[in-house]
Amino acid sequence: MIVPRRKLSFLERLYLPAILSGLRVTLRHFFRRKVTMQYPEERWVVPEGYRGAPYLVRDQHGDTKCVSCQLCEFVCPPRAIRIVPPGPDGPPADRPNAEKMPKEFEINMLRCIFCGFCQEVCPEEAIFLQQDYSLTGLARGEMIYDKEKLLDLGGIHQDRHLKWQRKHAEAESQKVSPPS
Asked: Which range (2-11, 60-69, 82-91) has the least confidence?
């Protein structure tokens, strides 16, 4: 099939209209206020609702809040989270009445898309999205954050419910009270 093409006019062959329209765009931006930011000295103001990097948090007693339920691992779209639950003999829990603590917890920040699903699905409120946006590393291995690094970066979260402390107090009161 042959497609008939029309002949270009004299001005179209000179490319003059295209050059002038490009020059018009250049001049329009030339006199506007500059938006370049000097990055290390000037920081970007994070807008409301920004979803940053996910980190693990501790409660106000310094205990790990994660109970290795693996919901965040299952809901993660790019599969950036990897949790290794404890075996049958498992590591001892760092707080009373905690059934299981993760043996390993890793988030690959190169794969993470900062969607926030892990924070939404966590029943223990152990994962929170922080407001940082400058994740850097010299090698790919540095961008895989392990449990200790995630806990250090996440910090301490003040728990409103204190459910583990209540269960611990109930268990202690049952052990201490003499049989009747």
From this structure: 82-91
Is 76 a domain residue?
Answer: yes
What confidence tens digit (pLDDT) does each residue in 55-71 have? 999 888 788 888 889 99
Number of domains making up the chain: 1
DSSP 104: E
Tokens linked to 124: 């223990």
The answer to whether 144 and 109 are in contact (CB under 8 A) is yes
Tell me the C-alpha distance between 59 and 151, whole Å: 11
Can you give the residue range of the structural domain that contains 74?
54-160
**Which residues, other chains included, contact 178 with Cβ-Cβ below 8 Å and sequence gap of 6+?**
none
CATH of the domain at 64: 3.30.70.3270
What pLDDT, in 10s, does the model give residues 128-167?
999 888 888 999 999 999 999 999 999 888 776 655 555 5
